[in-house]
Design brief:
The complex is a heterodimer of chains A (316) and B (65).
Chain A (H helix, E strand, L loop, with lengths): L9 H12 L12 H13 L16 H21 L12 H11 L5 H7 L3 H15 L4 H4 L7 H14 L9 H11 L15 H15 L4 H13 L2 H13 L4 H32 L4 H25 L4
Helix pairs in contact in A: 1-2, 2-3, 2-10, 3-10, 5-12, 6-9, 8-13, 9-13, 10-11, 10-14, 11-13, 11-14, 12-13
Chain B lengths: L6 E3 L5 E4 L3 E3 L5 E3 L4 E4 L25
Classes of the chains: A mainly alpha (316), B mainly beta (65).
């Protein structure tokens, strides 16, 4: 279970006291800033994962909180759709998978992994791991919510992919657990959401987008599209991360997390693109736009984090 | 529904191998699969052979399988 974060403005302040008191029928003010709104949505989403010690689990589906969640979710979805340039045109004979990998290859966003490989300091890596922990400690959980909403072929393939993410029946191999072991070996807090107070807007938004896609059945296309882009931009960057961690003499446990992903995600990217997204589009052609939306948003949200951190570190 | 193949050749990429197998690499060394699906390198450039590590994406297109 997570600990409630500190408020970052009027909305998160009112929300936090509603959650703790259980009196949710109050006026929720406008967000004081984008960060205030993103944190509030993150807090609400967390009720659907592990919850909080201080909060009644029944509040997950409290009508007032669901209303607030919808308000914040609609904002986020609108923002993601506005940023998205639209689905790329491709010839039918080229096929979805080739078009998808071409989009990934054309992505020229800044790379945090390359920075870690060559230049990052110990403190910068620590900061990055803290930000990454928000997702990596519940790795694959958002897209797991999509599983029962898919047609047979993509459902079977996603289950196969997630069996691997979740350790193939061995909890000690669960990817989120490997990351927790890495955090502990670094002397960092491995509690889920332990570093949410440090997370900048871009990190909160990246996490919220995955929950938005995973929790809403109608966005199942975006959820698996996001997964496919995430996996397809993981293998080579994870090798660079592992090399950077080795350069800095960081513990074997945290390196092991990234080394595992070099191989695992070389499998997962093929699975996600060819055996999950493509069959989903074949079964439900109306989902294709959202598959591209999810994929593009994945690349864009990561680029926003990279810009933010590299600028902060004077490395942009 | 038609039967699902156990082996899938990915254009320009690895060979997906479903299930538990013993794979002999180009040196004759045997490796046991450890995942529900494994990706076997086909471009010859992987640093973790016989498994794919995504390297096919950074080699010229004409050298990809």
């Amino acid at each position: 279970m997570a600990t409630l974060p500190k408020p970052r403005g009027p909305l998160s302040e009112v929300l936090l006291s509603a959650l703790v008191s259980g009196r949710t029928d109050v006026a929720y003010p406008d967000q004081g800033s984008a960060e205030d709104g993103a944190l509030s949505l993150w807090i609400l989403y967390e009720l659907s994962y592990r919850g909080y010690h201080e909060v009644d689990d029944r509040l997950e589906f409290d009508p007032e909180l669901v209303r607030l969640r919808r308000r914040l979710e609609d904002d986020l979805e609108q923002r993601l759709r506005q940023r998205w340039p639209g689905r790329p045109a491709y010839e039918a004979e080229q096929g979805f998978a080739a078009a998808f990998f071409a989009m990934i290859e054309a992505d020229d966003g800044p790379s945090l992994a390359r920075f870690v490989q060559r230049d990052a300091t110990h403190d910068q890596v620590v900061e990055l791991l803290q930000h990454r922990s928000l997702y990596h400690l519940k790795e694959s959980d958002p897209v797991a919510l999509t599983l029962p909403r898919l047609a047979a072929a993509p459902r079977a393939a996603l289950a196969e992919l997630q069996y691997d993410e979740y350790g193939g029946g061995r909890p000690e191999r669960l990817h989120a657990h490997l990351f927790a072991e890495g955090m502990a070996a670094m002397g960092l807090d491995a509690t889920e959401g332990g570093y949410v107070d440090e997370a900048p807007l871009e990190v909160l938004e990246q996490n919220n987008a995955m929950s938005l896609f995973g929790l809403n059945r109608r966005l199942r296309g975006a959820s698996v599209g996001h997964l496919a882009a995430f996996e397809a931009t993981s293998s080579l960057p994870c090798r660079k991360m592992a090399q950077g961690l080795e350069r800095l003499g960081l513990p074997a446990e945290i390196r092991a997390y990234y080394e595992e992903h070099v191989e695992a995600d070389a499998v997962h990217e093929q699975l996600a693109v060819r055996l999950i997204c493509e069959p989903l589009i074949a079964a439900e052609p109306d989902t294709e736009d959202d598959v591209w939306l999810g994929a593009w948003s994945c690349l864009d949200l990561e680029a926003r984090i990279a810009h933010r951190l590299l600028e902060q570190w004077g490395a942009a | 529904m038609s039967e699902t193949p156990d082996v899938v050749l990915c254009p320009g990429g690895p060979m997906l191998l479903r299930g538990d197998h013993l794979v002999a690499d180009d040196q004759g060394v045997e490796h046991r699969t450890t995942r529900p699906i494994s990706a076997v390198c086909r471009c010859g450039k992987s640093a973790t052979k016989p498994w794919c590590d995504g390297t096919h994406k950074v080699i010229p297109e004409k050298l990809r399988p």
